[in-house]
Amino acid sequence: MRIDILTLFPEMFESLHTSILERAQKKGLVEIQLHQLRAYSLEKHHKVDEYPFGGGVGMLMQPDPVFAAWKELCACLPEPPYLIYLSPSGKQLQQSDLKRLAQKPQIALLCGHYEGIDQRIIDQLADEELSIGDYVLTGGELPAMVLADGLIRLVPGVLGHDESSDDESFSDGLLEYPQYTRPAEFEGLQVPEILLQGNHQKIAEWRRKQSLLKTWKIRPDLLAKARLNGKDRILLGEILAESDLTYKNLSIAPLVMKDDL
């Protein structure tokens, strides 16, 4: 996979050259190219922002540097990459989006700044607008790093085991179960006994139940949308029977009886 990032602050992306992400690049599994948008400004001081027509607070990124950078990028590639504009007004990024985008061989990320960018850039160049949450940051660089990190770890061969990315939070619509490592006892805190017994079937069942329980407590909205099978509903029934009053208001009774989708 190739990821091109169009930004005013390429120095912010040093974190993409560490740990797993760095190894992925050294293996040739991923290529990351940074493009300084100021280099495409025709202004004497490489200015890339201007006041918005009609008035308003703040400045906007001008279209000409972005269009020039995009044209040069496309000229050196077999076909234009899929361009994503990182914006607080975009669709909120989900794990399903990462899986979809990870299938594309080339992705370009456009990082906005100031109060936003000229709408003609979005209308003519962007294939998609994505947001990492309902809040506003100073620019699109941090969201671009989040998106790039999430994409790279889904590239085959990047993680140590093929199944690593399939057994995590959101991979099946639920939060991941609690995990433990050595020592089995630490300052009086014990690892659940079932994990020490070596019965993989029971461990798998325990983990699934814990995943359902954690999702119910923390993100009941996810549980309502998850695809649950008959065994899941049996486990949910057990959770409902064992639950204390703290979580009674998050009733899962309808899910226990719900038909398979």
What is the name of the CATH class of the largest domain?
Answer: Alpha Beta
State the end-to-end CA separation. Answer: 34 Å
Largest sheet: 5 strands, parallel
Supply the CATH superfamily name of the largest domain: SPOUT methyltransferase, trefoil knot domain
From the alpha-carbon coordinates, what is the Rg to the nearest angstrom? 23 Å
Helix count, per DSSP? 9
Report the order of strands and helices. EHEEEHEHEHEHEEHHHH
Percent of residues in helices comes to 25-40%
Number of strands: 9
Mean pLDDT metric? 90
What fraction of the residues are assigned to beta strands by DSSP?
A: 15-25%
Describe it for me?
- The protein has helices at 19-26, 63-75, 95-101, 119-124, 141-152, 200-218, 220-225, 230-242, 253-257, and strands at residues 2-7, 31-36, 49-50, 60-61, 82-92, 106-111, 128-131, 185-186, 189-190.
- By secondary structure, it is an alpha/beta fold.
- The protein has two domains: 2-152, Alpha/beta knot (3-Layer(aba) Sandwich); 185-257, Trp Operon Repressor, Chain A, CATH 1.10.1270.
- α1 (19-26) links the parallel β1 and β2 (31-36).
- α6 packs across α8.
- The protein is elongated and about 70 Å long.
- 22% of the residues are buried.
- The model has no long low-confidence stretch (mean pLDDT 90).
